[in-house]
Amino acid sequence: MEYTIVVQSNVEELERVVNDLLKNGWKPLGSPQYNHLGNVSWIQAMIKES
User: Fold this and answer.
1) Which end of the chain is more exposed for a tag (fewer CB within 10 A), N or C?
2) What whole-number distance in Å separates Cα of residue 5 and Cα of residue 45?
3) SS3 47
């Protein structure tokens, strides 16, 4: 299994990257998270079965 964390500064970019990963066999792990402390960031953990 592979694991990665996608971090983007806006939700539109997060959607674009996550959609690209979904097309390549990745699956989201949990819900997207929003960090508003310091630099704003949207975060999504992703996994891919080997």
Assistant:
1) C
2) 4
3) strand
